[in-house]
Amino acid sequence: MNALPTLAFFVVHGFVILVIAGVWYYATPKFWEVGYMPEQPSTGFNHQIHAGKLGLDCRYCHTHVEESWHANVPAVSTCMGCHAENKLNVELASATDEKVQFIRDAYATDTPIEWRNVHVVPDYANFPHNAHVNAGVSCFSCHGQIQAMPVVVQEESLSMGWCLDCHRNPEDNLVPKDKVTDLFWVQNEWFNKVGDNGALEPRPTADRVHEGQTPQELTATLKRNPPQHCAACHF
Description:
By secondary structure, this protein is mainly alpha-helical. It has a domain at 125-232. 42% of the residues lie in helices and 3% in strands. The chain contains twelve helices and two strands, in the order H-H-H-H-H-H-H-H-H-H-H-E-E-H. Strand 1 and strand 2 (199-202) form a beta hairpin.
């Protein structure tokens, strides 16, 4: 009986530690939100074909990312700019005809396509796309290898800690401004593949050169002083 209080002490405190550890690990955006992939209308929009195989610039569809706080979803008329009759070669048109019929139906009935948002920032936080894009933050840094995704998946947690990590050390995510939407260039020139699974990690700053600038000059040109206070995102 004398040992019971000691045993109870370790059992209770061990349980409390396990609960805290479980919440610390599982109750986070990194665990619950990374990998989020909502079901899109019809077969959705295949980025692997459009941004990857065809090499479309992100700004063809997301036309206002350089001037707006929000990355707009394209109107049906934008889709029809390519998918209207005779705009595609016969072989490609016949291969994709059924998959894009929902676009033609929406255009014919003047009905917007209800795309589901993948990257959702809480209402109490603000993320201005234009400020980040114009500062040299590549689409690749937040959205990952979007050109290889048949269906878009949330690649990063979008948590406050993730944002602050970038604001404290922005160099790894800053690229030349003319390359912000060039996903292949960023992937091949700004990152190294490591490990057996081909994971990407930023190249050392000293290895980065663009248009004749030394790495030091380039970094000094790109780097700003990203705010780290609360009012930067919450106002």
